[in-house]
Amino acid sequence: MTQSLLHRILDYANRPDPYPIYEELRRTPVHHEADGPYVISTYYEIRSLLHDPRMSSDARNLASHTSDPLAEPGSAEGGALPPGFLKLDPPEHDRLRRMANRPFGPPHSPRRVDGMRPELHDIVTGLIDGIGDPGGFDLVEQFSYPFPVTVICRLLGVPREDEARFHVWADTLAASLDPDPDADPAERGKDAHDARMELGMYLAGLIEERRKHPGEDMLSQLATAKGGDGAMSTMELLSTAALLLIAGHETTVNLITNGMLTLLRHPDVLGRLREDPRLAVPIVEELLRFEPPVQLVPQRTTLADIEIRGVTIPKGAPVWLVLASGNRDPQRFEDPDRFDPDRPDIQHLGLGSGVHSCFGAPLARLETQFALAELARRLENPRLVQDPPPYRQNAVLRGPRQLHITCDGIRA
């Protein structure tokens, strides 16, 4: 029996290369099967809906008679905390996002991300130094995974001696995001619940400590801020910190790993980056178009009937916005299946758009630029051991589960 397009997107067998499915999907820009989600796959329609106030991110607006196979995947934040602002609509979303942004970026904290450059360099250098045998290593385990979570620990102000505990919690919660048909769901659920509780208790203690003895870190500023929007409650602080840990960490892991995989498949671009690290900026932008870490945005719901390309999406319907398909729409990008960091115009959807555009985008960009430039400079003649590599089960957060590389040496 022929699989539906929806099932083919979710089928793990297609994870290494979902792009032919997206090409087929774009022939019907508004795709709908039975009582399932409305799947939007073309660039301009996706961008329009990302900016449409009639679209909701709050699952409570979903009509009860509809079905969404990606509803609440993993529930990494868990029910013990209120929803993070990612899952809220204005005005609640806007209030929390404004409060979270004050200590993170312009105009209130314009140097927060840029000021981390020396620390990012030190973390990247330490991880590459620790790779060990250049003849064979897993980039995910030894570099892509520990790098972003270490950065988030430093950003929030987690004491260095506690960073290892944070790594364990991040590993467990990240694993809960991926479907695993071979695992015991009850055991997986318990592991994720325990990690959430331990993380929540730790953060609650850290928040209380920062309120008494604030420092220069982001958590201190969140815990003591009293602006026009008032102060975050402890529960709101906990959900915001958890959101930064999970959402920020997972997307950057995939962006770095997808980036290195793409560069190893395009050795000419890798060679150019080795000679000119400034090329990392356009390379990362093209990567966000060509191999975005978030392939699709599920859990959007219509607050009213919306007509798209002659199709009416009814109020309360689940909607998927397939960002990775829009990024390869030939109506928007010339020769979209070609990786080309010299494109004059890369207005991609890789970090979303509109009110829910990626909160951590400046940091994710900078982390990936540092990571790829230093890997290109220091790894001598790097080569893939396996292509395609084994991928994660997750259809939303798509990236290699492992990326085994061999090289002739590691430069000082």
Automatic annotation (TrEMBL):
It comes from the Bacteria. Residues 57-91 are annotated as: Disordered. InterPro entries: Cyt_P450 (IPR001128), Cyt_P450_B (IPR002397), Cyt_P450_sf (IPR036396). Belongs to the cytochrome P450 family. Transmembrane segments: none annotated. This is Cytochrome P450. It comes from Streptomyces cinnabarinus. Coiled coil: none annotated.
